Amino acid sequence: MTKAGFVVVANRLPVDRIVGADGEEIWRTSPGGLVTALEPVMRETDGAWVGWPGQADLVHEPFDFDGTALIPVTLSAEDVELYYEGFSNDTIWPLYHDVIAAPRYRRVWWDAYVRVNERFARAAADAASEGATVWVQDYQLQLVPKLLRELRPDLTIGYFHHIPFPAYGLYSQLPWRRQVLEGLLGADVIGFQRVADAGNFARAVRRQLRFETKATGIRVPQEDGSSRVALARAFPISIDTASYVEMARRPDIQARAAEIRESLGNPKRILLGVDRLDYTKGIQHRLKAFGELLEDGRIGIEDATLVQVASPSRERVQAYMELRDEIELAVARINGDRDTLGHTAIRYLHQGFPREEMVALYLAADVMLVTALRDGMNLVAKEYVASRVDNRGTLVLSEFAGAADELGTALRVNPHDIDALKQAIVRAVEMPSAEQGRRMRAMRRKVLDNDVAAWSHSFLDALEASRTTKGSTP
Ligand code: G6P
Questions:
Q1: By Cβ atoms counted within 10 A, which residue in 41, 61, 127, 192 is the most buried?
Q2: Which atom of ligand 1 is nearest to the CA of 89?
Q3: Residue of the nearest CA to atom 7 in ligand 1?
Q4: 97 lines ligand 1 (CB under 6 A)
Q5: How far from chain centre, in Å, is Cα 226?
Q6: Does 346 sit in the ligand 1 pocket, CB within 6 Å?
Q7: Hey, is 354 helix, strand or coil?
Q8: What is the C-alpha to C-alpha distance for residues 466 and 474, in angstroms, rounded to an integer?
Q9: DSSP one-letter code for 126
Q10: CA 121/CA 356 separation, integer angstroms
């Protein structure tokens, strides 16, 4: 296979494998902003994407998909259990989200994480041409930058961390805290969602490794006694804004939005929550607040319906199974207590939907509830804003979501404060149209100006600048 000048390394490939009734294999683009953002770069540079095809024990040759070389990395059932469900999603995920669930530190999981990170690093090293740029994505692959640099010192390596980086007091729980920091520092540029995440990372590096940090630069000593500077700073990710605007303007999608309202019995207000079913999203807090508002009579059952889309996620991890039970119990209790034959309090959907249907839901929703207890960015908040081409609707947004840094005119809440959350919901439900417009317009400007293409350009420009200062040739 020809070598690529630009290589993305991510836990997942940007496609899903579907096997038809006749046994025919089809690969379909998986929904996600990253794929869209990188498409042009991929095309210009003969790009390659290294990732797991999403199923255990799937062995597949590299193949071309829409002009990008896809390089599948095989994970055995054991790798999936120990590296993906275990270390990635039962150690790092809860630890980095402020221990909302208790992280489990298991040595066999760590061993598998090292082993699988080595496999990804080798696949990337094999795919990259001399002097190529490699962009590693997210917490499942924190060791890849260092491993890759050892295999291929000629490469320029970037890493983007899509989830939060925790405060030092929490991070220091990790038994392998030094190895993870060293792994990340193999990159020339380490990108975070928020300024605070980059700050937490720099502090961990100072405390654990005693490396010198200056503004966004970290001096990394080399074995030969010299040193290089790695850049660690915020690059807040975004969405493919134009495609949301375009969908929101489509008459068929607007008609679908009206149909959704109709099918819910045309309540005065529709409230909406859209999340992966994850304990970081604050779904229970939202349900509690809404349930109490109905109980207090501050919101009447005829006046509002909450539509909660909770897409299935990581279903074999214990904490996720427990969460599902808790949420479904809460929904059933509230509905059992409050529903009438004609109206339902909460319409709960444990399903994923196509993007078009999501945009129709965004257009149907008067109030969007994003109540994450901790979230790297929360792209749902940006999708809602992008879709509101009518400049209406109210976003209730947790201050613990990265999006709160940019969407300053949302109704900002601390989701742990149930009374404040209730107050924000009432305020959103009652907000006059002119105020909705003023707030929404300001947020829309942000999301229109800073889309995912701008994000990837700014990251790749910083990476290119680091290459220039290194003095190597492309
Ligand atoms: C978050 C992570 C991604 C991950 C996604 C879905 O957004 O930052 O890296 O791909 O969740 O989770 P999954 O475990 O299904 O890949």
A1: 192
A2: 14
A3: 162
A4: no
A5: 36
A6: no
A7: coil
A8: 12
A9: H
A10: 36
